[in-house]
From TrEMBL, chain A:
PROSITE patterns assigned: 2FE2S_FER_2
All residue ranges annotated as the 2Fe-2S ferredoxin-type domain in the record: 2-78
Keyword annotations: 2Fe-2S, Iron, Iron-sulfur, Metal-binding, Oxidoreductase
PANTHER family: OXIDOREDUCTASE WITH IRON-SULFUR SUBUNIT
One Gene Ontology molecular-function label: oxidoreductase activity
Family annotation (InterPro entries): 2Fe-2S-bd, 2Fe-2S-bd_dom_sf, 2Fe-2S_ferredoxin-like_sf, 2Fe-2S_ferredoxin-type, Beta-grasp_dom_sf, Diverse_Oxidoreductases
Pfam families listed in its UniProt record: Fer2, Fer2_2
Gene: coxS
SUPFAM superfamilies: 2Fe-2S ferredoxin-like (SSF54292), CO dehydrogenase ISP C-domain like (SSF47741)
Name used for this protein in its record: Carbon-monoxide dehydrogenase small subunit
Automatic annotation (TrEMBL), chain B:
Protein name: Carbon monoxide dehydrogenase
InterPro entries the UniProt entry points to: Ald_Oxase/Xan_DH_a/b, Ald_Oxase/Xan_DH_a/b_sf, Ald_Oxase/xanthine_DH-like, AldOxase/xan_DH_MoCoBD1, AldOxase/xan_DH_MoCoBD2, AldOxase/xan_DH_Mopterin-bd_sf
Gene3D superfamilies: Aldehyde oxidase/xanthine dehydrogenase, a/b hammerhead, Aldehyde oxidase/xanthine dehydrogenase, molybdopterin binding domain
Keywords: Molybdenum, Oxidoreductase
Highest taxon of the lineage: Bacteria
PANTHER family recorded: ALDEHYDE OXIDASE 1-RELATED (PTHR11908:SF132), XANTHINE DEHYDROGENASE (PTHR11908)
Residue ranges occupied by any Aldehyde oxidase/xanthine dehydrogenase a/b hammerhead domain in the UniProt entry: 29-149
MF (Gene Ontology): iron ion binding; oxidoreductase activity
UniProtKB/TrEMBL annotation, chain C:
Organism domain of life: Bacteria
Keywords: FAD, Flavoprotein, Oxidoreductase
Protein name: Carbon monoxide dehydrogenase
Ribonucleoprotein among keywords: no
Domain FAD-binding PCMH-type: 1-170
SUPFAM superfamilies: CO dehydrogenase flavoprotein C-terminal domain-like, FAD-binding/transporter-associated domain-like
Organism: Skermanella aerolata
Gene Ontology MF annotations: FAD binding; oxidoreductase activity
């Protein structure tokens, strides 16, 4: 067992984990943050995407111990404390970018990173940028619409987007 | 977009409004509750040891070392299951062969006894304090296997001397079934001016809902009650199948909960071994047991879809009128019969072979075959995509052979609206449909006339452009129970709904259908809000728990709204009828004088009225209430059994471009015009269509479940090899619908939209691919049209590619 | 995953000490290959040694006119680096085409080349650009580094520290991704290095290789047309359900032309 200390959604936490414990297991099993999902075992589906120090990563492909000292943001940490949705979350709702909701947390976390790391997004960049996130329900059509709108909203509501 | 502004919603949350989803907030903030998100006090974890072989005899299983491993609570094998008289998993549909004999139904034990018949077959369960400990211990279970030869495809399995999957299934045949009039069809072919023939394979798919299956079993010693949380599309069906057939637990002692479910597409309809194992074993060890599939396990344990090998012939007269259709299909059942498997290539497939056409004579023969592969069952569309693919591919080829425009040939053969209701030669009665209208609208949207110019422009860039379409029809809203029963269903296929008005005017609706992406919590609430004239916020939809919902058959076959919604509608009728009586009493008027409109009961011609909330209050505080005539309360339940299937239909058109150097197919344009009857929430409907289309595109271009024919190993057992459509594989779509032909026999006029995209999608894309390659003399390509296959076909083409 | 002990050394000497001191130690860099492998229980290391905190292994710098990239530099860092964009922009593009955004945010250059997956992208870059691999013990020319399928010239306790790329002339990379995994079914990198043309092919064979006929043809005429009619022998190329050997041979020719077009454009 190793001790890991990290910040998750702004709160400092310390837990004892095995070397083999994955970050996603730390989040789900030790911290009860079940919004981050697991959809595959080959690091391809993106259901598990969270932000580590502001960058999107697959939490199923990172050891919990590797997150020691880092800041992790999960889907639970995206909306404002009063429940106001992050502009990207709001855009997914507005444009029906989710159906069963299983891919959604990872999809939204990837989309937020995508929006932040691109000055300009168009349909092609969004589709390519979501390469690491598989959705079986939506056919991506509305996800693409949502991400474009969400990115636009993040630009026009920077304060809220920065709350993340 | 609706083209019928007359149907504009009465209010912002009523029927026809694109109400934003009420389920979204929890999903978007990570607060959904999927099965794996649930943890029970004192819970243990199960790991299923699965067969690494497609076919092997088990000489013995030694669990001693595993039992000693750290954290291990118990290890069980098929012997333990048998000792406790646990039965095999039942099959819910009985098919009879041509000769009247019942299908061969081999036992399907939750844990095998002495033989495994597919890679992934359940051999033992290891229960430990943690999942990793269970997995560690699983490696210590010693299974003594004798590997046996395996067979993976239906044509091979039917050959003399093929390895047998089950001793009782001679020649690996499950049934040999037929439908239609053979003599009439033979006669039609005898007088045909032209016959188009086609051999095709409908490729096996893995459904791949993004949430892997999971189950938690719990036994309460104090009460003797069992609870099962499971990733299911139909908790009541699981309660029935597992309780009554497998474990012998009566309904009142078994609660099945299907919480938030991350997609199903059919794969979560069936009763699976793991559900029975965790429920049974939770009593044995006296602790809750959780099992969660890893994706690699899903690939070898979720029921697969499709897998047909078909020969078809279409007879036409000199004018291109279809005279007859002859079909022979081999349907791969896999190693066992999954819950509804036998019905898919029969009553959900052959009955749809008329398509949208007036073909007067049809004869279909279907052989269902056992192989050493994962069981096959319904996957989005289930039988109907296979039928659509066959019809639309052969119609397309006939048009090309006869030199008739593909749209013209279809027009000549469409069943006109004037012929409705229409009895097909394959046992269905279509109630309505305006097929040509959908076609025209779709042709307009894609600018069909402009295609030759676009093709020429693509050619100048070295690309091959093709256009293809599919005019599909499906039988949905499954089903009238008496019809299904006559055809072999071992269950009813109605739906239940309960509408409970609370004293202060809010409403809870209990539905037996289940939402795992379909948005019931929103669309069903729209129905209620619209009918009662109350704010949507005051309506709560409850589903997925056998202890809350009276009964249910679940969600599949695009039936939720058509059947489940109709049950709610009937229950609402009962509420209004009762409320009317109460209102009449309260308003001191005759019941016949009371009108109910926009949430108010009014004495006709007066301004005396009561809101439905007032009436509800009085129903629960019956101070001024007709107690001599009525019981207090306002809570009504209804079962709805449909009179007929519903028949969603439409036309999809795709334009593709092929890079001849690499064989890569890109979809440039895709339009769909659908007739779903009345539309409750256009946003949700369009979303369903998008998702279905991409599953159709996936089948056509990417997805293929491949077994090694020698060893029976699954070669596409992860996303490294099973090609899931991703965002950059597909375009945006143009989706429209029309509402001019509402379903004639259910109270809502709805037909169902869940499967349409997937039903037409693969045929549409393949017709476009073949069209793009037609100049090279290529007449057919089996799915998926991967870059490799397309490139190979171009290399082997009879007409060489024009020099650059 | 089997249980193991995790270490996070902060210096290279500590790393080497751990690697040679432990019974069956395994290095982890980005973990994008190692973790999936461990999850499938295909490896059972006693110890896992994380390079993440070893500062000297990380970073991108210009040196002697060329480019030096530390072993633990992530794909996303290479893709986003101004220095790389200035010196070898196509290398940034290549890095930007590896996996997906999340993989690029973790996966490293060192991890990729040490793993030497036959369908990885970087091997084409290293061989095509005539790079040199620096280890804690020596320097190895790229062509000698990649020795076989998932095999490299590294000794058991040898650690890649950096890769040095000379500044090339024109460079083009064209990748044909596996439709499912998105790894390179075939990737061809064409480059002018020290006055000579190099053509490196990944994905097609068991290990990255050069295509001498194409190099020759392009030396006299650096255009896609120069490759017309040239083919590689399908014998010995990889074959799987996604791509036969013949198809891969075709893709080598097609991707080579597209790489030339990119380089020329
Ligand atoms: C979904 C997905 C898609 C991918 N797509 C692509 C793709 O398209 N193209 C492509 O090229 N790759 C692809 N990859 C692989 C990716 O690039 C990996 O990051 C890379 O192969 C390994 O790098 P890593 O830093 O993650 O190494 P790790 O996984 O940490 O290590 C890999 C191996 O290298 C060893 N190692 C690591 N660093 C060193 C070192 N400095 N010295 C000695 N040994 C070392 C480790 O011990 C291990 O054996 C993909 C991976 C995933 C998960
Ligand atoms: S769970 Fe699929 S990528 Fe992490
Ligand atoms: S919404 Fe269901 S997988 Fe994306």
């Amino acid at each position: 067992m190793t001790s890991v200390s990290l910040k998750v959604n702004g709160k400092s936490v310390t837990r004892e984990v095995e070397g083999r414990t994955l970050l996603v297991q730390l989040l789900r099993d030790h911290l009860g943050l079940t919004g981050t999902h697991v959809g595959c075992d080959t690091s391809q589906c993106g259901a598990c995407v969270v932000h580590v120090d502001g960058e999107s990563i697959k939490s199923c492909t990172m050891l919990a111990v590797q997150a020691n000292g880092l800041e992790v943001t999960t889907i639970e940490g995206l909306a404002a404390a009063d429940g106001t949705l992050h502009p990207m979350q709001a855009a997914f709702r507005e444009h029906h970018g989710l159906q069963c909701g299983y891919c959604t947390p990872g999809m939204v976390m990837s989309a937020v990173d995508l929006a932040k790391s691109h000055e300009h997004l168009d349909e092609k960049t969004v589709r390519e940028g979501l390469e690491g996130n598989i959705c079986r329900c939506t056919g991506y059509h509305n996800i693409v619409k949502a991400v474009l709108a969400g990115a636009e909203a993040m630009r026009s509501q920077p304060a809220q987007a920065a709350a993340e | 977009m609706s083209n019928s502004p007359a149907n504009a919603p009465v209010n912002a949350t009523g029927i026809g409004a694109s109400v934003k989803r009420r389920e979204d907030f929890r999903f978007l903030t990570g607060q959904g509750t999927y099965t794996d998100d649930i943890n029970r006090p004192n819970q243990t974890h199960a790991y299923i040891l699965r067969s690494p072989y497609a076919h092997a005899r088990i000489n013995g299983i030694d669990t001693a070392a595993a039992l000693e491993a750290p954290g291990v609570v118990a290890v069980f094998t098929g012997k333990d299951i048998a000792a406790d008289k646990v039965n095999g998993l039942p099959c819910g549909w009985l098919i009879h062969s041509k000769d009247g004999s019942p299908m061969v139904e081999p036992p399907h034990p939750p844990l095998v006894l002495d033989k495994v018949v597919h890679v992934g077959d359940q051999v033992a369960v290891i229960i430990a304090e943690t999942c990793e400990q269970a997995k560690d211990a699983a490696e210590l279970v010693m299974v003594d296997y004798d590997e046996l030869p395996a067979v993976t495809t239906s044509p091979e399995a039917l050959k003399d001397g093929a390895p047998l999957v089950h001793d009782q299934a001679t020649g690996n045949l499950c049934y040999d079934w037929h439908l239609g009039d053979k003599a009439a069809t033979d006669a039609a072919f005898a007088k045909a001016a032209h016959v188009t023939k086609l051999d095709l394979i409908n490729n096996r798919l893995v459904p791949n809902a993004m949430e892997p299956r999971a189950a938690i079993g719990e036994f309460d010693r104090a009460t003797g009650d069992y609870t099962l949380w499971t990733t299911s599309q139909n908790p009541h069906v699981i309660r029935l199948l597992m309780g009554a057939f497998v474990l012998g637990i009566p309904e009142h002692k078994l609660r099945v909960i299907a919480p938030d479910v991350g997609g199903g597409f059919g794969s979560k309809i069936y009763h699976y071994a793991e559900e029975a194992i965790v429920t049974w074993a939770s009593r044995k060890i006296g602790r809750p047991i959780k099992w969660v599939a890893e994706r690699s396990e899903s690939f070898v344990s979720d029921a697969h879809g499709r897998d047909h090998v078909t020969h078809a012939e279409l007879a036409l007269d000199a004018d291109g009128k279809f005279l007859g259709l002859r079909v022979q299909t081999l349907a791969n059942m896999g190693a066992y019969l999954s819950t509804f498997a036998p019905s898919i290539p029969t009553y959900l497939y052959a009955t749809l072979l008329a398509g949208q056409y007036t073909t007067p004579a049809i004869y279909a023969e279907v052989k269902a075959v056992f192989t050493h592969t994962v069981p096959v069952d319904a996957y989005r569309g289930a039988g109907r995509p296979e039928a659509c693919y066959l019809i639309e591919r052969i119609v397309e080829n006939a048009a090309r052979e006869l030199g008739i425009d593909k749209t013209e040939l279809r027009r000549r053969n469409f069943i006109p609206p004037s012929a409705m209701p229409y009895d097909t030669p394959v046992a269905l009665q279509y109630d309505c449909g305006m097929f040509e209208k959908c076609l025209d609208q779709a042709l307009n949207l894609i600018d069909y006339k402009g295609f030759p110019a676009r093709k020429a422009e693509a050619k100048a860039r070295g690309k091959l452009r093709g256009i293809g379409l599919a005019s599909y029809i499906e039988a949905c809203g499954i089903a009238p129970s008496n019809v299904a029963g006559a055809l072999g269903a071992r269950a009813g296929l109605y739906e239940s709904g309960e509408v409970r008005f609370h004293p202060t005017g809010s409403v809870t609706v209990f539905t037996g259908s289940h939402s795992h992406g379909q948005s019931h919590e929103t669309t069903f609430a729209q129905l209620v809000s619209d009918r009662f004239g109350i704010p949507i916020e005051n309506v709560e939809i409850v589903h997925g728990d056998t202890s809350k919902v009276p009964f249910g058959m679940g969600t599949y076959g695009s039936r939720s709204l058509a059947v489940g919604g109709s049950a709610i509608s009937k229950a609402m009728d009962k509420v209004v009828n009762k409320a009317k009586k109460i209102a009449a009493h309260m308003l001191e008027a005759a019941e016949t004088d009371i009108v109910f409109e926009q949430g108010k009961f009014t004495v006709a011609g007066t301004d005396r009225s009561l809101t439905i909330g007032d009436v509800a209050l009085s129903a629960y505080v019956p101070h001024n209430f007709p107690l001599d005539e009525l019981e207090p309360g306002l809570d009504e339940q209804a079962f709805y059994d449909p009179k007929n299937f519903t028949y969603p239909n439409g036309t999809q058109i795709a334009e593709v471009e092929i890079d001849p150097e690499t064989g890569v197919v890109r979809i440039e344009k895709f339009v769909a015009v659908d007739d779903f009857g009345r539309v409750i929430n256009p946003m949700v409907v369009e979303g369903q269509v998008h998702g279905g289309i991409v599953q159709g595109i996936g089948q056509a271009l990417m997805e293929n479940c491949v077994y090694d024919p020698q060893t029976g190993q699954l070669l596409t057992g992860s996303y490294m090899d099973y090609c899931m459509p991703r965002a950059d594989d597909v375009p945006s779509f143009i989706v429209q619908y029309h509402e001019e032909a509402p379903c004639t026999h259910n109270p809502l006029g709805v037909k169902g939209c869940g499967e349409a995209g997937a039903i037409g999608g693969s045929a549409t894309v393949m017709n476009a691919v073949v069209d793009a390659l037609a100049d090279l003399g290529i007449k057919h390509l089996d799915m998926p049209a991967t870059p490799l296959r397309v490139w190979r076909a171009i290399q082997d083409a009879s007409v060489p590619l024009a020099a650059e | 995953m089997y249980a193991f002990e995790y270490h996070r050394p902060t210096s290279l000497s500590e790393v080497t000490g751990l690697v040679s001191g432990k019974e069956d130690a395994k290095i982890i860099a980005g973990g994008q290959t190692l973790i999936p492998t461990l999850k499938q229980r295909l490896a059972q290391p006693s110890d896992v040694i994380d390079l993440g905190a070893v500062a000297e292994l990380h970073g991108i710098r210009e040196e002697g006119g060329g480019l030096v990239i530390g072993a633990t530099t992530k794909h996303a860092e290479v893709a986003g680096s101004d220095i790389v964009r200035r010196l070898i922009p196509e290398l940034a593009e290549l890095a930007n085409g590896i996996g997906d955004a999340q993989v690029r945010n973790r996966g490293t250059l060192g991890g990729s080349i040490c793993n030497n997956d036959p369908s990885a992208d970087y091997p084409a870059a290293l061989v095509g650009l005539n790079a040199t691999v620096h280890t804690n013990k020596r320097t190895i020319p790229a062509e000698e580094f990649f020795t076989g399928m998932f095999e490299t010239a590294l000794e058991l306790d040898e650690i890649v520290t950096a890769v040095a790329f000379p500044k090339p002339g024109r460079v083009g990379y064209a990748k044909f991704p596996n439709p499912a995994s998105r790894y390179a079914t075939v990737g061809v990198l064409v480059a002018e290095v020290d006055g000579a043309v190099r053509v490196a092919v990944t994905g097609a064979g068991p290990v990255v290789f050069r295509w001498p006929e194409a190099e020759q043809a392009l030396s006299s005429n650096f255009s896609a047309a120069a490759l017309n009619g040239l083919t590689v022998d399908a014998d010995g190329l990889n074959a799987d359900i996604h791509a036969s050997a013949e198809y891969r041979a075709n893709l080598v020719a097609v991707m080579a032309k597209r790489a030339v077009v990119r380089a020329a454009g």
